[in-house]
Design brief:
The protein is of the alpha/beta class and 95 residues long. It is built from 4 helices and 3 strands. Strands 1-2-3 form a 3-stranded parallel beta sheet, with no helix packed on it. It is elongated, with a radius of gyration of 19 Å.
């Protein structure tokens, strides 16, 4: 009985067995290009790590374009000052 269960779980969870044409995996560059638009409001979460790669990529793609983002976060430290320095945000929301 357990062998049948284990085989079925292995069959379902073995993602590397066959590539899917519906894969949502993409580079950070492609994700920002596809999903981030001028005027958007997005939240940059804080835990032990910030999404540094995403912050840098958003800044790279929108630098000098005045996208007027609204950005919320627990604080604007480190690389997040780039949103101010690069004139990328029209509004910053923090605690």
């Amino acid at each position: 009985m357990y062998d049948l269960f284990e085989e079925r779980v292995k069959e379902i969870l073995d993602l590397s067995a066959k590539p899917s044409s519906d894969s949502k995996v993409m580079s950070v560059h492609d994700a920002v290009e596809r999903f981030i638009r001028p005027g958007m409001h997005f939240h940059i979460g804080h835990a032990y790590l910030r999404p540094n790669a995403a912050v840098y990529e958003i800044c790279r793609q929108f630098w000098g374009k005045n996208p007027a983002f609204t950005i919320s976060s627990l604080g604007f430290i480190s690389n997040m000052v780039l949103f101010v320095y690069g004139n990328l945000a029209k509004k910053l929301i923090t605690t």
